[in-house]
């Protein structure tokens, strides 16, 4: 019972591999993050899942079946390039989108009113899409994704360009959908969002998967050898300690990654008296740090090999 | 199929609601009425004015006969059209002409005619007026002078002008169209309605074709296409768009046809005097073939336009790509005259069988002279085959093109799309 199974898919545009032998499985009922820097192949992967682009090789199963017309009705897709018919009235647009996904008549109308109400757009039902503000259009775009009550959501950068209020609104709906047993896959390059709501992740870089699995397990793998320090004073000397691997210094705040097998507890006594310590926390690395390490490392390797 | 219906519905409602549709639907019949109705109306209403014309007759003896001839021209209310005033020639002709010129400028005279002494020997008469663009009037005067002078010459030779007139009487020739039902007089009516029907077909193919192109382009530029394609096959979207816009065209034609029949009936009952304005009766089968060729032509050309709309990224690029397609519509219009003159020549037959030309040229042939059925049927079969091929080809191009942004594709790339699409 998987929401999505991708096996060995590849897509080439000319000589350029947009996706190269990518595989992952997503169980039902979770929130799955598809991460990666810009141009990594996230959108191409999603488009192949949606059957908009056909993969050169490999197979894709959506909700345990091959993607077809009937299946598409069970998927809610929010593309990266947002767009709606500018000249259509809001209500008509939603009705059209519901109809082409198999929901018609009074059922569709009821659903439309419900969602417009929830997003505070009821008064705009008879207005043309182009009359709406950008923020309202984004809300409308999200309604267009959920209007047919899909079992699987595929959201390409769902939070891009949203203000904090709407970000929260959409995050809440995502969690609500998860509670109802639906599956959400979303792509992003904003790590803090992933950390907050994702169960599993797949990190894609340069067309290939570089890290995949359960988020908390991944973090555990990286071990508890990161120290977060909230300090006053000049902490420059820390970087000379032999056990320090990497430092991310923000002036009053510092993330210290220690070398493997070094004891983070041993660090504290070395600092006492030299700087003012407001907080000393031993934790797993942030996803951001993992991301930069994974993506950055590959970049370095690449430059060497060239 | 249900999904295609949803797309058709959307396309139809959106298109019918636009100002362009409403304006065109109303404006075209109004323009038609204006073009055909106004001249008829004007000629019916206007009585015309009596004109006073001064005549300087140096030839002696022509004036009387000339005046008599012109008496034949009457206004609608039965009054004489031209009132002549004989001007006594004085010694100084130039001075006389100068004074007549002043009278014209003062609106006392509308014109003056100068008849030279040697008019019978080929001397040049003159007609002077404020404007010389009333060709009917100059023709009337020339005709009258002509017959008077010829009569005078004949009498001088001792011949009887009436007899000579009889001898010189021209033959009459009437064009009669032979149909299965019999024979009917044709005073250019067939030509007129063929022309109107073919031009209507030509314009609507371009109009609705470009509407499809713009629709596809709009979906692409507004980026809504990916949302739609997550629920529909590109083919369903393209087919729905073509059928929807086709239905819009059909609606517009129906409105025009209803209006046309009404205006025609009403107009005919109101214009009994328009004697030489012979309204041709258009056979029903011509309308049937018009609809058939409109639909076939529309489907054929709309696939081209849909493919173009999906390939390009802006109106400007679209215009570049649509030019060759429109050329295929212009060529048969240019060939129309040729086909009209020799509808059954080998060249006409071959040209009218080519699918891209067939909608216009075969319709033309159907109007002028019904071709052997094998040719009409053959061209329809060829059209249907090429439509099927084009739908296959265009949906492949559409599928890839609609999601491609950036530079418009080269022919080589399009070939690749078709191969892998």
Give a nutshell description of this structure.
The complex is a heterodimer of chains A (306) and B (421). With 306 residues, chain A is α/β, with parallel strands linked by helices.
Total number of helices of chain A: 10
The helix-and-strand class of chain B reads alpha/beta
Which percent range fits the helix content of chain B?
A: 55-70%
User: Would you tell me which CATH topology of the largest domain in chain A applies?
Assistant: Rossmann fold
Query: What multimeric state do the chains show?
Result: heterodimer
Strand order of the largest sheet of chain B: 2-1-3-4
Mean model confidence by pLDDT of chain B:
84
Shape of chain A: globular
Radius of gyration of chain A: 23 Å
Poorly predicted runs of 5 or more residues of chain B: 273-277
Strand content of chain B: 5-15%
Could you explain how this protein is built, in words?
The complex is a heterodimer of chains A (306) and B (421). Chain A is an alpha/beta fold. In chain A, 34% of the residues lie in helices and 30% in strands. Chain A has helices at 42-49, 69-72, 90-99, 105-118, 134-146, 164-179, 191-197, 215-221, 267-271, 287-305; strands spanning 2-13, 16-27, 31-35, 57-62, 65-66, 75-78, 152-156, 183-188, 200-205, 208-214, 226-232, 244-249, 253-258, 276-283. In chain A, the strands form 3 sheets. A 6-stranded mixed β-sheet of chain A has the order 6-7-8-3-9-10, with helices on both faces. In chain A, a hairpin with a 3-residue loop joins strand 12 and strand 13 (253-258). In chain A, helix 3 (90-99) crosses helix 4. Chain A is globular, with a radius of gyration of 23 Å. Chain A starts with a strand and ends with a helix. The model of chain A is unreliable at 300-306 (pLDDT under 50). With 421 residues, chain B is of the alpha/beta class. Chain B folds into 2 domains: 51-164, 3-Layer(aba) Sandwich (D-Maltodextrin-Binding Protein, domain 2), CATH 3.40.190; 188-420, no CATH class. In chain B, the strands form 2 sheets. In chain B, strands 2-1-3-4 form a 4-stranded mixed β-sheet, sandwiched between helices. A two-stranded antiparallel ribbon of chain B has the order 5-6. Chain B has helices spanning 2-17, 19-45, 63-71, 93-105, 135-156, 161-167, 189-221, 225-229, 234-270, 284-311, 315-341, 346-353, 358-368, 373-401, 411-420, and strands spanning 51-57, 82-87, 111-115, 126-129, 176-179, 182-185. Chain B starts with a helix and ends with a helix. In chain B, 67% of the residues lie in helices and 7% in strands. At the A-B interface, helix 3 of A face helix 1 and helix 8 of B.
């Amino acid at each position: 019972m998987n929401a999505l199974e991708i096996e060995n898919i590849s897509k080439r545009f000319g000589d350029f591999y947009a996706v190269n032998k990518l595989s992952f499985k997503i169980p039902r009922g979770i929130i799955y993050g598809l991460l990666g820097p810009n141009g990594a192949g996230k959108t191409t992967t999603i488009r192949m899942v949606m059957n908009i682009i056909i993969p050169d090789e490999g197979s894709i199963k959506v909700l345990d079946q091959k993607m077809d017309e009937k299946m598409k009705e069970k998927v809610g897709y929010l593309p990266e390039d947002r767009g709606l018919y500018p000249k259509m009235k809001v209500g008509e647009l939603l009705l059209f989108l519901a109809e082409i996904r198999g929901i018609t008549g009074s059922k569709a109308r009821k659903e439309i009113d419900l969602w417009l109400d929830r997003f505070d757009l009821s008064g705009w039902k008879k207005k043309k899409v182009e009359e709406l503000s950008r923020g309202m259009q984004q809300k409308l775009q999200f309604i267009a994704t959920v209007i047919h009550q899909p079992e699987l959501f595929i959201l390409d950068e769902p939070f891009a360009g949203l203000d904090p209020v709407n970000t929260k609104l959409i995050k809440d709906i995502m969690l609500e959908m998860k509670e109802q047993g639906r599956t959400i896959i979303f792509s992003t390059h904003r790590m803090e969002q992933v950390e907050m709501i994702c169960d599993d992740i797949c990190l894609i870089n340069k067309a290939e998967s570089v890290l995949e699995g359960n988020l908390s397990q991944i973090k555990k793998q990286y071990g508890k050898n990161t120290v977060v320090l909230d300090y006053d004073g000049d902490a420059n000397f820390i970087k000379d300690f032999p056990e320090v691997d990497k430092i991310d210094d923000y002036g009053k705040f510092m993330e210290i990654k220690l070398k493997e097998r070094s004891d983070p507890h041993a660090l504290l006594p070395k600092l006492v008296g030299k700087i003012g310590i407001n907080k000393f926390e031993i934790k797993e690395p942030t996803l951001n740090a993992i991301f930069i390490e994974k993506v950055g490392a590959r970049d370095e390797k690449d430059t060497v090999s060239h | 199929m249900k999904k295609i219906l949803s797309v058709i519905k959307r396309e139809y409602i959106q298109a019918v609601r636009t100002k362009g549709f409403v304006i065109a639907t109303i404006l075209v019949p109004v323009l038609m009425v204006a073009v055909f109705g106004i001249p008829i109306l004007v000629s019916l209403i206007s009585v015309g004015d009596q004109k006073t014309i001064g005549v300087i007759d140096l030839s002696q003896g022509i004036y009387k006969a000339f005046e008599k001839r012109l008496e034949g021209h009457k206004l609608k209310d039965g009054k004489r059209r031209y009132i002549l005033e004989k001007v006594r020639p004085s010694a100084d002709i130039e001075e006389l002409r100068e004074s007549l010129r002043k009278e014209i400028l003062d609106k006392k005279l509308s014109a003056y005619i100068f008849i030279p002494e040697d008019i019978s020997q080929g001397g040049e008469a003159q007609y002077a007026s404020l404007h010389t663009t009333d060709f009917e009037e100059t023709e009337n005067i020339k005709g009258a002078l002509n017959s008077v002078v010829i009569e005078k010459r004949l009498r001088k030779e001792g011949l009887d002008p009436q007899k000579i007139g009889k001898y010189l009487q021209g033959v009459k020739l009437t064009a009669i169209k032979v149909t299965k039902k019999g024979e009917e007089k044709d005073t250019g009516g067939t030509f007129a309605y063929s022309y109107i029907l073919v031009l209507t077909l030509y314009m609507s193919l371009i109009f609705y074709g470009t509407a499809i192109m713009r629709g596809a382009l709009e979906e692409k530029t507004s980026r809504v296409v990916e949302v739609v394609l997550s629920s529909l096959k590109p083919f369903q979207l393209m087919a729905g768009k073509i059928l929807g816009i086709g239905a819009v065209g059909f609606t517009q034609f129906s409105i025009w046809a209803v209006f046309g029949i009404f205006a025609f009936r009403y107009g005919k009952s109101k214009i009994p005097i328009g004697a030489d304005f012979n309204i041709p009766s258009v056979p029903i089968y011509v309308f049937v073939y018009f609809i058939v060729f409109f639909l076939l032509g529309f489907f054929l050309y709309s696939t081209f336009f849909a493919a173009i709309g999906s390939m390009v990224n802006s109106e400007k690029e679209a215009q570049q790509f649509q030019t060759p397609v429109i050329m295929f519509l212009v060529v048969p219009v240019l060939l129309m005259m040729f086909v009209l003159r020799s509808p059954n020549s080998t060249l006409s037959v071959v040209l009218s069988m080519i699918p891209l030309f067939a909608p216009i040229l075969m319709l033309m042939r159907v109007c002028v002279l019904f071709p052997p059925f094998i040719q009409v049927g053959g061209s329809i079969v060829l059209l249907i085959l090429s439509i099927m091929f084009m739908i296959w080809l265009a949906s492949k191009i559409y599928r890839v093109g609609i999601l491609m942004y950036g530079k418009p594709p080269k022919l080589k790339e399009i070939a690749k799309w078709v191969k892998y699409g």
